[in-house]
Write a structure and sequence with these properties.
Length: 699
C-alpha cells in the first residue's frame, strides 16, 4: 500500500489539475484517498430503468432514461415553472417540472440530451410527471447503457459541474487511476480477517464500488468497505479503551461513613435496581486503582443525580474534592439546590460557581477550592476557567455531557491529576451510536424509574381544541397545580409563522388573569432566571411561559401540565426532555402537544411517537432514524467520525461485527507489531491515530 501516494494531493491526478482540485476540495476531496472514497450515490443499470409506459401510480420512485424533446419556462398565475419533456427508446413520454430554481435549471438542459431522471411519478392529465427530480446527464456514454453495464453516478454540485466534473468525467479520472495504480494499492486487512469475516479483497472492493461487474459484486464490495470503515473507528476506540485501563487513578476506600449516612438517613426513598448497579460499577472502578471513565446513560427521571451524589461522597470519604459541571446556569443552579439539600446535612460544603458572580464571592470560593475547605463545586464552564484550582480533585461529574465542547471537557480533566470521570446523559443513546461515540467508555444504563414517578399522559391537540385545552389548564390551576407552556421562539419572527413566547405570555396572562403568569427565556440575566425559577418552585408563579431553556434539569413536583405550542417544530429528543419536566410529584400529569396542519411526514412521526410511548430508548431509535447520526444531539461536537459509505442507522449489524473484529485484534496484537499486521498498522497510523481523537474521548 502506497501510504504516501494515498496522502498525495488530488491535484496531481491525471485529469484533475488545480481548477478541478479546488472544486473537489469543496466536496471534501483533498487527497487521492479521498478521491477513491468519493463513493457513487447511486447506480444505473438496465434492471433499474423503468419504461415510461410501465409506470404505475403506486410506484414510490422510478428511474427513467430518455432523450429531451422539449424544454421551456411556463408562466403561471402565482409563479413560473420549468418543464422538460423526455422520450425513452420505447416511445414513452414523461414530463419533469421544477418550481424552484427555475432560472438555474433552465440552463442545465438542452433538446437532444440523454438524461436519467429519478423521483416519484404522479399522474397528471393524460400522463405522468416527476416534480423536482434528481437527474444525471448521460451524454457521450456511448453504448454503456445498451450493453447492460452498471454505471456509477456521483454526488454533484454546481461548483463541480462548472469545472467539468460530471459523473462521466469522474468515472474517466477514476478509471485511469485504477489502471495506473490499482495493482499497488494492497489490502490493508490480513488474510485471517478476510477469511474469518467473509470479506472480499480490499483492492477488489474499491474497484468494484466504482466499476461493478455485477450486482452481487457491488453488494459484496459495499459490505467490505462499510466493514472497513467501521473497523478502523472501532480499532481506535479499542486501543483508547485498553490505554485507559492501564492509567493509574486515585484508589478510593471501600464504602465509607458519608455514603452509608446518606443512604440511611438523608435519601428519602429506596434506591432502584438500576441505581444500585450503577453505584456498584462506580465502586469497582474507583477502588481498582485505575482511572474511571464511565458514562451513566439514563432516561429522564431515572435518578442519575443520586448516583452522582454517592460517587462524590465516595470521593469525600477518601479525602478528595469533586466538581459537577452542567451546560447551563439554570441547570447548574438546579443541581446546586439539590446537592445542597443532599450534602449539607452531612457536613459537606457545596458552592455554586457561575459567570457574573460578585468578585468577593468568587474569590472566597476560589480560596476554598484551593485550600480544600470546599468539597464540592457545582457550575457551568466557569468551573474550568483560569484561576480555578483544586487542592485534590478526585471526581469530575459532567451532566448532559454531549452539550460541552471537546476542549471544555479536556480542560476540566486537566484540573486534577487524572481524576475519575463520571459522565451523565439524559438523552438515551441508540446502541449503534453509543458503540461509535462512546465505544471506549464503560457504560452503565439506568432504565428504572425511582419510586413515586408516575407515567405522563401525552395527547395531541389542534388549534380548534384551544378552548378545551384552556379549560383543562384552568382546572389544574384551580386544583393548586402548576403548568408549563413552552414556545419555540422568544420574539415574533417574520420568517416563521410561530406563536412566540412574549406574545403567548400576554395572551395567557389575559386568559388566566386570576393566576400569576410569568415568562422565562434565555435572554434574561442569570439573576432574573434564578429568581423566576425560585418563585415557580415555591408556588408563587402558577403558570410559567418559557422557551426550551427549561428543557433539562428543572424539577418542580407540583407542575402537572406541559403544554408545548407548535410541537411539530420541535425535535423528538427535545419533546421527550420537555415532557420529563412533569410527572415528578404525586399527582397525574399531562403533556399536551399543540400541533398545526400541514406538517411534514417526519413531524407527524415525531408527534405520534410521543403519544405512543414514553420509553426514551425507543424514542431515541426513532429519532436517530429520522435525523441520521450526523444530526443526533450535535454528534459532530462529540467526536463522531465522518462516514463515507457506512450508515450507523442502517448498518448496525456490520458495525457490531466490525467492533468484534477490532477488539479481537487489539487483544491479539495490542501494538500491531506482527508482520501480518504491518500494512494495517501503517494505514491506521496514517489515517486513524488515536491522538487525533484523544480530546473527543475525554468525556
Amino acid at each position: 500500500m502506497q501510504i504516501e501516494f494515498l496522502s498525495g494531493s488530488v491535484q496531481f491526478v491525471k485529469g484533475v489539475g488545480p481548477r478541478r482540485a479546488s472544486a473537489l476540495e469543496g466536496a471534501g476531496v483533498r487527497t487521492i484517498r479521498d478521491l477513491f472514497q468519493y463513493y457513487p450515490r447511486r447506480y444505473l443499470d438496465r434492471t433499474s430503468v423503468t419504461r415510461i409506459r410501465e409506470i404505475a401510480s403506486d410506484m414510490e420512485s422510478v428511474t427513467v432514461v430518455g432523450t429531451i424533446r422539449t424544454t421551456g419556462i411556463i408562466p403561471g398565475r402565482k409563479r413560473k415553472r420549468f418543464e422538460v419533456q423526455i422520450e425513452d427508446e420505447w416511445g414513452g413520454r414523461l414530463k419533469c417540472v421544477w418550481f424552484q430554481g427555475v432560472t438555474w435549471i433552465s440552463r442545465v438542459f438542452e433538446v437532444g440530451q440523454k438524461v436519467a431522471f429519478h423521483g416519484k411519478p404522479q399522474r397528471y392529465g393524460g400522463g405522468y410527471t416527476i416534480y423536482h427530480p434528481d437527474f444525471d446527464r448521460l451524454d457521450e456514454e456511448g453504448p454503456a447503457l445498451e450493453t447492460g453495464r452498471i454505471i456509477s453516478l456521483y454526488p454533484g454540485s454546481a461548483t463541480l459541474e462548472k469545472s467539468g466534473l460530471t459523473s462521466r468525467s469522474l468515472r474517466k479520472i477514476l478509471f485511469g487511476l485504477f489502471k495506473e495504480h490499482g495493482e499497488n494499492l494492497g489490502d490493508v486487512f490480513p488474510s485471517w480477517l478476510n477469511e474469518k469475516y467473509d470479506l472480499i479483497d480490499g483492492r477488489v472492493a474499491l474497484r468494484a464500488v466504482h466499476f461493478p461487474r455485477s450486482r452481487d459484486e457491488l453488494e459484496r464490495a459495499r459490505h467490505r468497505l462499510k466493514f472497513e470503515e467501521f473497523f478502523f473507528i472501532q480499532l481506535m476506540l479499542s486501543k483508547l479503551k485498553k490505554g485507559n485501563e492501564i492509567l493509574d487513578g486515585y484508589r478510593f476506600r471501600e464504602t465509607g461513613a458519608l455514603v452509608r449516612r446518606f443512604i440511611d438517613d438523608v435519601l428519602p426513598f429506596q434506591l432502584t435496581g438500576s441505581q444500585l448497579r450503577a453505584i456498584q460499577d462506580i465502586e469497582v472502578d474507583t477502588q481498582s486503582g485505575r482511572r474511571m471513565n464511565r458514562l451513566i446513560q439514563g432516561d429522564v427521571g431515572s435518578g442519575k443525580t443520586v448516583v452522582a451524589v454517592i460517587a462524590m461522597l465516595s470521593a469525600a470519604d477518601s479525602g478528595f474534592q469533586s466538581a459537577f459541571m452542567a451546560p447551563t446556569e439554570i441547570l447548574a443552579e438546579q443541581h446546586y439546590r439539590n446537592l445542597k439539600a443532599y450534602l449539607e446535612p452531612l457536613g459537606i460544603q457545596v458552592r455554586l460557581l457561575v459567570g457574573g458572580m460578585r468578585k468577593a464571592v468568587r474569590e472566597e470560593i476560589l480560596e476554598g477550592l484551593a485550600g480544600g475547605d470546599i468539597s464540592v463545586v457545582v457550575g457551568t464552564h466557569a468551573v474550568i476557567q483560569k484561576g480555578v484550582d483544586f487542592r485534590g480533585l478526585g471526581m469530575c461529574v459532567v451532566d448532559e455531557q454531549h452539550r460541552f465542547g471537546v476542549l471544555q471537557r479536556a480542560t476540566l480533566f486537566a484540573k486534577g491529576n487524572r481524576p475519575h470521570m463520571l459522565l451523565m446523559t439524559a438523552t438515551p443513546i441508540p446502541r449503534s451510536l453509543a458503540l461509535t461515540l462512546y465505544g471506549d467508555l464503560d457504560v452503565s444504563i439506568m432504565r428504572d424509574r425511582p419510586p413515586g414517578r408516575k407515567p405522563v399522559s401525552t395527547v395531541m391537540k389542534w388549534e380548534t381544541h384551544r378552548d378545551e385545552v384552556n379549560a383543562f389548564l384552568r382546572t389544574e390551576l384551580e386544583s393548586a397545580r402548576q403548568c408549563y407552556v413552552v414556545f419555540p421562539l422568544v420574539e415574533e419572527s417574520e420568517k416563521l409563522d410561530l406563536k412566540d413566547a412574549e406574545t403567548g405570555f400576554e395572551k395567557l396572562r389575559a386568559t388566566f388573569g386570576q393566576f400569576t403568569v410569568d415568562l422565562l427565556h434565555g435572554r434574561m440575566t442569570s439573576d432574573q432566571k434564578e429568581e423566576t425559577m425560585r418563585r415557580f418552585e415555591e408556588g408563587e408563579i402558577h403558570l410559567l411561559v418559557s422557551t426550551t431553556v427549561i428543557e433539562v434539569g428543572v424539577d418542580i413536583p407540583n407542575a402537572t401540565v406541559m403544554l408545548i405550542e407548535h410541537a411539530e417544530r420541535f425535535g423528538l429528543s427535545q419533546l421527550h426532555q420537555l415532557r420529563g419536566r412533569i410527572g415528578r410529584g404525586e399527582h397525574p400529569s399531562t403533556c399536551i402537544l399543540m400541533a398545526e396542519y400541514p406538517r411534514s411526514p417526519e413531524a407527524d412521526t415525531r408527534l405520534r411517537t410521543m403519544v405512543r410511548t414514553d420509553d426514551g430508548f425507543e424514542i431515541s431509535e426513532v429519532d436517530l432514524k429520522l435525523r441520521g447520526a450526523g444530526d443526533f444531539f450535535g454528534t459532530r461536537q462529540s467526536g463522531l467520525p465522518d462516514l463515507r459509505i457506512a450508515d450507523i442507522v442502517t448498518d448496525t449489524e456490520i458495525l457490531i461485527t466490525a467492533r468484534q473484529a477490532a477488539f479481537e485484534l487489539t487483544e491479539m496484537d495490542p501494538d500491531l507489531e506482527s508482520e501480518e499486521h504491518r500494512l494495517l498498522a501503517c494505514y491506521y497510523d496514517a489515517f486513524y491515530r488515536e491522538d487525533r481523537f484523544n480530546l473527543s474521548r475525554i468525556g
